[in-house]
Design brief:
This protein is an alpha/beta fold and 251 residues long. The protein contains 8 helices and 10 strands. The chain has one domain: Rossmann fold. Helix 1 packs across helix 2.
Length: 251
């Protein structure tokens, strides 16, 4: 695991975007296209802004997949991840080859999951952009996460800690307003990505970062699985890194 410490979230976001852009360009050079996974949430604000601002990515050669989405939340809701990606990504890179959204409002969820699994199973994933949740979740895989399921996407039930994080970040006015179910990319599918770019700012994530980096690899801290990935890059600011041994970040 490659860990780097940055002075503040904007610097963290620029560094993560730079590494991600390098991997995208490399994939395009190697095979004529790049396939990436995009996450959402507060941890991705600066990274996405920096990624969209880059002029060295041939976006028409890029296909993007959506990491997770709530079930039964209108796309027009401010917390909808489809709405988030339209406003913070598509509005700035309209020439992208394709962006495959997760539709959490369909009547037939198994058919939607089958559609997503078929789409993402058709090609390798070059870069997965993601974060780490306050409870150690990776995507919406809350503890104890399923490390064994082979499908690329599954339906999940969100635990209270995850839902409290969404409320605490201001996406919902109350815990009751946070959906209890979602469609999430699985742990195994995330780990199939050639490169993982994890952006994790803020003191609220410090304990989860410590457990993911220095703890046992366990479903009780889903993000700990990235210790086993061959090319994982973790970008932190000082508050997020405060519980790591030495409290000094590593490159």
């Amino acid at each position: 695991m490659h860990i780097s410490l940055h002075e503040d979230p904007p610097a963290l976001g620029r560094a993560a975007a730079s590494r991600g852009a390098h991997c995208i360009r490399r994939a395009i050079a190697d095979r004529g296209r790049a396939d990436i996974v995009l996450a959402t949430g507060a941890s991705q604000f600066e990274m996405l802004a920096a990624l969209c601002a880059r002029t060295d990515i041939d976006w028409p050669r890029v296909t993007a997949f959506h990491l997770d989405e709530y079930i039964d939340l209108p796309e027009t809701h401010p917390a909808s991840f489809r709405n988030y990606l339209r406003e913070r990504f598509l509005a700035h890179v309209p020439s992208i080859g394709a962006l495959h959204f997760i539709d959490g409002n369909v009547a037939d969820l198994p058919s939607e999951i089958a559609r997503l699994n078929a789409l993402i199973g058709a090609q390798p994933i070059d870069v997965v952009f993601a974060g780490i949740g306050e409870n150690g979740h990776l995507a919406f895989n809350d503890p104890p996460a399923d490390f064994e399921v082979e499908d690329a996407f599954i339906t999940v039930t969100l635990d209270e800690a995850c839902r409290r994080q969404q409320m605490g970040e201001g996406w919902f006015p109350s815990l009751e307003a946070v959906p209890q179910r979602a469609i999430s990319m699985t742990i195994r599918q995330i780990m199939r990505g050639k490169t993982l770019i994890l952006s994790v700012p803020g003191a609220r994530k410090a304990a989860a970062v410590r457990d993911a980096v220095e703890g046992l690899v366990t479903p009780l801290c889903p993000a700990s699985i990235v210790q086993r990935h061959s090319d994982c890059h973790l970008f932190l600011d000082p508050p997020a890194a405060q519980y790591l041994r030495g409290n000094e970040g590593r490159r």
